Amino acid sequence: MKKKKLAIVSLMSDGGCHVAFLDMHENILQLLQNVELVHSYMVLDVRRIPDSVDIVLVEGGVRTSHDVEVLKEARRKAKILVALGSCACFGGIPGLSNLFDLYSSLKYVYEKTPTVIKGVIPRENVPEVVGVSPIFRYVKVDFQIPGCPPESKEIMEIILSLAKGEKPTLPTKTVCDECPLGPPRKKPSKLRRIFEPPKPSTCLLEQGYFCMGPVTRAGCGAKCPRAGIPCDGCRGPASKILDQGAAMLNTLATIAYNTIKNFNLRTYSAYFYRYSFASSLIEDLIRKTKVKKK
Amino acid sequence: MSEARIGVFICKCGGEISNIVDLDSLKEHVKKIPNVVYVEEHDFLCFSEGQEALKKAIREHKLNRIVIAACSPRLHEITFKRILSEEGVNPCMLEIVSIREQCAWPYPDNPSKATEKAKNMVKTAILRVKTLEEIGEVTVPAKLSVLVVGGGIAGITAALKLADYGFQVYLVEKEATLGGKGLQLGTVFPTEDCGVCMVPYKLERHRKCLFKYVELVLTNPRTKIFTKSIVEHVEGYLGNFKVIVRKNPTYVDFEKCVACGVCEEVCPIEVSNEFDFGLSKRKAIYMPSPHILPRTYIIDEENCSKCGECEKVCPFNAINLNEKLERIELNVGAIILTTGFREFNPKNMYGYGIYPDVITQLMLARMLDLSGPTGGRLVRVSDGKKPLKIVMIQCVGSRDPKINPYCSSICCSIALKHARSIKERHPEIDVTIVYKDIRLMGKYDEKYLMECERLGVNFVKGEVIDVKWDPELKRFRIKLESFSERKCLLADLIVLSTGFIPSANAIELAEVLDVSLRRDKFFASTHPKFAPLETNVSGIFVCGAAQGPTDISETINQALAVVSKVAKVLGKGEVRVRLSKAVVNENYCIGCRVCEISCPFNAAKVSVQGISNVVEVMCKECGICAAECPAEAIQLVNYRDEQLSEIIKGVLSS
């Protein structure tokens, strides 16, 4: 059997998903028996994406016009295009910058950040900066591997099944299903911040932490809640959920109405949409109201 | 499921629709939509010719989904559903678009806009009808037993009739005796029977005494009575309610007690009798009235010192002072609420509570009762003398926006009844009724008014401003305003016709049962005309004064109506339920219990395996759980996210 060609393309990204791919350790040998890695800026010195590739993993979301070009090229050359990691799937943490307009984001990064002295916004020989968006806004995506970073084991299993021509599946349930701390037994009485130490073996939501477990796709084995850290929703919404943050607010409205009734959504958007803001329903709304204000 | 074959039927409504909406262009538009195999317009789809045309088209073109663009579904939905099921199509596969009310009528001057909207709405309906699912029915076995809460006239009537029909009846009464307010009334209208004797009953010519009536309940093998008991917890649904009744200790076993009265003689404690509103004295172990049933002595827990004297002397060992509180679990198919009413307490109004000679109608009823504390003698409470001038003040605590805005509806009749019997017994006593309006609701009440006028009862229309005791005259001075004229009346005895308010436990009970109350705190019915005795929880009914002040004949009418309702629902021993309910997809459910917390009907429960389960019979299709579910695992059948997004697509497409 001919080996399938695999390429990893990097857009707006810190390379973490790429590292997660390499993090399979010796399992990579098993993977390489089935696929051939043809393009990866971390391990191969191949500058351009080869012409015909079976599987292309795209890491990172879209931030610049250059990203758009690369992405479209990858789509042209790929038989199967897979979004790798939460930035590619939902826009990821950078997506939160869509809460602000482009100019003020650039100004902050290049001029106002405390570590910058006499900085200027670069204007020459740089691609045009556009709003952060997940890659499905530009090209057709065949499969998504969410996570920040994605689980190495999951990446391997999915690539293997894609290489065999099967349709891989993601868990349909949410993190709560895998979490040993159990469902909330009573309504939270007060709100807690992440630096307050939690009680052991009690549901974090019940204790008053904003744990995104109920609405986040399972598959990670509830690592964070097991360690006493509330889930921050890195694996994005589960398959049926339209909007992760809205689903979470819905949950809280049922079990902690008194705690959240005075919320200003803008202030708390980083809690509920940490990874999925760029693909949320409310993002469009905020963008539109911003245009109106101008 | 076979391929969708959609038929679209457009009604002209005799020009109401076709004069405004351009039906030809609507038809052209509809024909282009995939899966539409047949389009027809008709003058009147609801007429028999239209119905025949609909049937014929369904048969000839093998249609399995129907869209009808006509008037509001409120008008003819049932008709069209019937036609569908007659032709072997599941009646759920129907969408009705109201192009008359929503397109033709709102835009009479703008036909193009009306047509545009009609096209859009019909397209939306076609997209939606494609996604509809068939809804089945399920049959659940029902318990042939009924819980009646409240042992007044309504409760006794309902219990007895249900027992006649073969149901096992549990009667829960919070007091130690049955009979409710009826026992205190003296005589009752319209037939002037003694209060404990009830109206002629069915074909029996002689009067039926409540005394006997209650005895029937007591002796019937199918009725079980819990006195001094309260409904503490209810769960379940129509056909299968699980009820926990808290039975407080009565200390006296009414089955053993023969009411010999030995215990009363030895009891060392004496207090005033609240049954007679303090007109008489009683012991801590007592019998409120010789007519009570079960005919037993009662121990007043508050005042009893538990000295044990009565226990020693009782010849039948009926008394056990060490009796403990009990909790009893019952399984019933339906619940009837007959908790009744109580008199509004007019404290500090018109001197009530300040002067002992200002009394209420119920106290007057005790006084006029021949077996009452005064033996039927009319006296002033303060000095025991016969009053010569009596003034009755109507509408105390009712028809007042600040207290109770509603009319208590029976106080006028009560006042007339009392005025008449006073005048009949003592023509020399001067009786005046101060009223706002005389409102007589009963069939026979007009007779009372005429009788009273003949006997010389004075009627004064007006509002009482002030009541003062005049120590010189030793009489009350009542200032009132009548037709913008100030008047002053003198009185020896003032009788307040107080309004009626719900029984003290009604609010508590409503919380236990999840039954809604009206603003006036009486039990609310689902529809004032079409379902006057049904509450928002199916399987829980209300009758008698628990749903508003009513007289005895009306109460008995309602009790009998409820009995027939219960017999209809439970009679077959099974309940049929449509399955258009919330359903849980086990592949998505995470057992977070949000549905359990948010369900107002307690239908959603998370199992031990951590999977939610919606009990079909209890689900009322409100959709709250479907909206709240964080994992979107619960969906409402035919209102699933996919189906709703089809509607949105349809609306946005043009």
Summarize this structure briefly.
The complex is a heterodimer of chains A (294) and B (654). Chain A is α/β, with parallel strands linked by helices and 294 residues long. Helix content of chain A is 36%, strand content 13%.
Question: Can you describe what's shown?
Answer:
The complex is a heterodimer of chains A (294) and B (654). Chain A has 294 residues and is an alpha/beta fold. Chain A folds into 2 domains: 4-163, Rossmann fold (3-Layer(aba) Sandwich); 175-293, no CATH class. Chain A has 13 helices and 7 strands. In chain A, helix 2 packs parallel to helix 6 (152-163). The model of chain A has no long low-confidence stretch (mean pLDDT 87). In chain B, helix 5 (111-131) runs antiparallel to helix 17 (641-653). Chains A and B meet through helix 10 of A and helix 15 of B.
Layout of helices and strands, plus pairs?
The complex is a heterodimer of chains A (294) and B (654).
Chain A: E1 4-10, H1 16-22, H2 27-34, E2 35-39, E3 53-59, E4 62-64, H3 65-77, E5 78-84, H4 86-90, H5 102-112, E6 129-133, E7 143-145, H6 152-163, H7 175-178, H8 204-207, H9 223-226, H10 244-255, H11 257-260, H12 265-272, H13 281-293
Parallel strand pairs in A: 1-2, 1-3, 3-5, 5-7
Antiparallel strand pairs in A: 4-6
Helix pairs in contact in A: 2-6
Chain B: E1 6-11, H1 23-31, E2 36-42, H2 48-61, E3 65-70, H3 73-86, E4 94-98, H4 99-104, H5 111-131, E5 137-141, E6 145-149, H6 153-164, E7 168-172, E8 187-188, E9 193-194, E10 197-198, E11 208-209, H7 210-219, E12 223-226, E13 229-237, E14 240-247, H8 262-266, E15 270-272, E16 281-283, E17 285-286, E18 298-299, H9 309-313, E19 326-332, E20 334-337, E21 341-343, E22 358-360, H10 361-368, E23 389-396, H11 411-425, E24 430-435, H12 445-455, E25 458-461, E26 463-470, E27 475-482, E28 485-491, E29 493-498, E30 500-502, H13 506-513, E31 540-542, H14 552-570, E32 574-578, E33 582-584, H15 594-598, E34 604-606, E35 612-614, H16 624-628, E36 634-636, H17 641-653
Parallel strand pairs in B: 1-2, 1-3, 3-4, 6-7, 6-20, 7-12, 20-31, 22-29, 23-24, 23-29, 24-25
Antiparallel strand pairs in B: 5-32, 8-9, 10-11, 13-14, 14-19, 15-16, 17-18, 21-30, 26-27, 27-28, 33-36, 34-35
